[in-house]
Task: structure prediction
Amino acid sequence: MIQSVAFIGLGAMGYRMASHLPRHFDTVYVWNRSFEKAKQHATEYGTQAVELSQAVQADIIFSCLPTSADVAQLVENLELKPGTIWVDCTSGVPDLARQLVTQLKNQGVDYLDAPVSGQTIGADNATLTVMVGGDFTAFERAYPAMQAFGKLIKHVGESGAGFAVKAVNNMLLAVNLWSVAEGFTTLKAHGVNLGEALDCINASSGKSGVTETIFPQRVLNRSFPVTFALPLLAKDAGIALDLVHAAKLPAPLIALTQSLIQAANQTAEENSDFSAAVKMYESWSKITLE
Amino acid sequence: MIQSVAFIGLGAMGYRMASHLPRHFDTVYVWNRSFEKAKQHATEYGTQAVELSQAVQADIIFSCLPTSADVAQLVENLELKPGTIWVDCTSGVPDLARQLVTQLKNQGVDYLDAPVSGQTIGADNATLTVMVGGDFTAFERAYPAMQAFGKLIKHVGESGAGFAVKAVNNMLLAVNLWSVAEGFTTLKAHGVNLGEALDCINASSGKSGVTETIFPQRVLNRSFPVTFALPLLAKDAGIALDLVHAAKLPAPLIALTQSLIQAANQTAEENSDFSAAVKMYESWSKITLE
Amino acid sequence: MIQSVAFIGLGAMGYRMASHLPRHFDTVYVWNRSFEKAKQHATEYGTQAVELSQAVQADIIFSCLPTSADVAQLVENLELKPGTIWVDCTSGVPDLARQLVTQLKNQGVDYLDAPVSGQTIGADNATLTVMVGGDFTAFERAYPAMQAFGKLIKHVGESGAGFAVKAVNNMLLAVNLWSVAEGFTTLKAHGVNLGEALDCINASSGKSGVTETIFPQRVLNRSFPVTFALPLLAKDAGIALDLVHAAKLPAPLIALTQSLIQAANQTAEENSDFSAAVKMYESWSKITLE
Amino acid sequence: MIQSVAFIGLGAMGYRMASHLPRHFDTVYVWNRSFEKAKQHATEYGTQAVELSQAVQADIIFSCLPTSADVAQLVENLELKPGTIWVDCTSGVPDLARQLVTQLKNQGVDYLDAPVSGQTIGADNATLTVMVGGDFTAFERAYPAMQAFGKLIKHVGESGAGFAVKAVNNMLLAVNLWSVAEGFTTLKAHGVNLGEALDCINASSGKSGVTETIFPQRVLNRSFPVTFALPLLAKDAGIALDLVHAAKLPAPLIALTQSLIQAANQTAEENSDFSAAVKMYESWSKITLE
Result:
């Protein structure tokens, strides 16, 4: 029976994810490097902003940080209590997941890689998808806690599998984003009505999350709202490519897309949304996607 | 007021599309190069199998042939009556659409490029998407006839625009097919449960028509049902790339995908479904997607 | 026996190529759209600057214009005398070569596509390579005239073959330029001494014209002298890709390189040398090749 | 003053490289896993086939093994004498070079990564290029020994730099091999005479080691002599790509080529020369390069 939970890392996603916890658990600790944010969260949602050393005494510890390296650094000097489950919702690196499993096992703690998808709106509505790698018993024990913010919660394999699925998902997002940019630029160059074309494709075999939501809601209306930063997509694309190479696989489309996204990230304005990767392509074509 | 319609080309799609016409129109002519098929259609659906010269006396002529070149060849020696609208549902070439417009205008006939998507199941259920290029008044006049088999019917631009949208749609299908093959092969190499991964991605930003239907219904179950032949996808990918070049655009992902699909087509078994393009990738990775 | 020759198009290459003709032929006509240049050439080299209509009365007519379209336009209204050979040194389009052959045959004139390589220094020294397509007898008759500026003069096939070889050569140049940029950027990122690395590679299997001359003489010394304009390389890369598609071949590396060169051309400063294509890559890597 | 040298690894390259050592040094030990080969070498060239433990007592130890991992495994259990220099001519991994430096420094031994290029003919003629990374003083001390088989011997940077240059060289070889295959297939499809085209390109800006030697001597004559195995080129291409990723660089051409070479290796016959990678492309194009 889970009595207490903690949420570490109150960024755009974590802040929202943690907001649902008080409805399900008596004790909810929150912690954030910029501690003001933790205090604000406590005020807003009735959580408890506490020292990190206290937070990690919870039965379930959630973390949601920018990178796996941030999690590893945090874990380094912590003393945890045996029986705890650390559920890491970071979009992280499979190899580091396996390292953390080994490291935390020494303290009797289970580690699950449990990245989420669904963006800020999914975090608001507690309808996130959670893709979980690691020990199956730990997964089952942590399941009720993940239900606080997740709708589809899947055990996809051993440690690192969750991170792998997330990385591949985001790589496919990148492939779709760039290829739709190429395709729609081509259509625009030929005088096609992009709005009508989008409707047709969304009812056809070429549709994707990008044609259904990203293009209409972010690109074609030129809003590019910064809800998922381009450097993070570039990082995830890199993780996906590392998986490809670790398995010694050829993967021409993934490899090319990773290069393009990395280049787009290098040439983008500060603080760009991932969808703004199309702007590098626009600089090549001299055609604006609107 | 449309009194009579004709349907030319009773292949996998055309046969089904024409089956709905008798419910809407008094006179429905059908014609097919292998004429037995036309007679079979007449028997089955109450259409009239007639000579081509008679069929083309209908108010609206639909055609659905393998390529634009087939349509052009057919049109060459026909005498049409002024006021007819030719609605060409072939997945064709934009440049040829414009040629046919000019050619048919001499006989007082309007030509619309009106390719469809939705595959055989959409043709069965009359829920096809129809993407139409050409004269807007002709589009409006032909609209009721297209409703016999179409659900979403859109005017996407001038002549050739319909073909362009279809070609780009199918190119995106090809991009998605190949990139999902790369991504899922990578996941399998890392021991991830593909079924669960698919569920997660289908609830996430990387989803596409390929992850939602093609992969579960054709690839992962190893069925590869031949409903849309690989050579036709290769042809459509070539049309899309031609559009890219005609507009003098760089398009690295589209160009690479076209090469891969063309190579997959060259090395595939006879009579392969488009989804069997993944088999070339499987020969590279030595991993079967199942 | 060749009595008179003409040279049409006195650009960077043509001006130098025509300078050798007076040493070999009694009558040498020159013509240039900006006629001042023709007069300057006459003064400098003892050629005769004449009206176009007179120039084309020569036994052998050389042309060297920016594009095949320029040649076609020029030819349109000319009256030529039967027995003339038109030797087109433009880096042109194979299809247009075949059109010009047909067109000029009506006037009893042979047309050879005869693009050159060797850059301005080769034109200065009369050591150009001439790759010739077209009728073999015409090739043999024009051979002595081409020797005025060419060292290696080869009949590579039927009409268009010369243009095809030139386009493929320039595409390989583009592939080499970009891949060497990627490779040397990688070496620099790892602290390798680029000059020593270049020496090693130039004695090894990975060497190319780019490692031997272009990189040391244009890129690493940051000179980028404008002797072969980037838009012309982009044009030639496009011709090469058109050949690929006309033959319905997959060609992933050529296709990708064409996209990259086209993008580099679109984003380059005005009046860039082809070697400055690497600057787009530098904007991606944030590493300068020096 | 170097008194004794050893050569470990008598493969196609090592066997020939070691053959020159007796002309320069009084004591030359050789060792090979299949010891018969060492004895054969001793008989043929007057070297001494000895136990590994004795061989490594030489002043300079050369090694030339298939992979860095083989070298690392060998070094693990050896006792070396301080002051020795280990000159590793393997085409290896930069990261492992740095590991070996650290490991051998504990025994007072210097390690240089010193891969060679020039193939078996260069090994026969002692005209190899040696690209060396590591301590400069050690480089200078080992220089005379490397002169026994090397002609151009360059210090290209710190530890790992030699391996990096070799990997990039071989990656450029792979890029050139594949792109020339695409280009010449295109020319053949258009009826161009490949031999004449090769002569033209070899006198032009698109030339490379591949057009100058690999294509005429291995591909177009269909000999594909197995002097450098395709799996080794695939391995080197992988090392190059790892360098790209370690530096977080985009590199679309390198990434694509690595995928193609890896796929070619996966689908090749056993015991293929690297040049046989073109056969995968031939299976796509249905055109034989001859």
Summary: Chain D is about 50% helix and 15% strand. The first strand of chain D starts at residue 4 and ends at 8. The CA atoms of residues 131 and 154 of chain D lie 5 Å apart. Chain D has two domains: 4-158, 164-285.
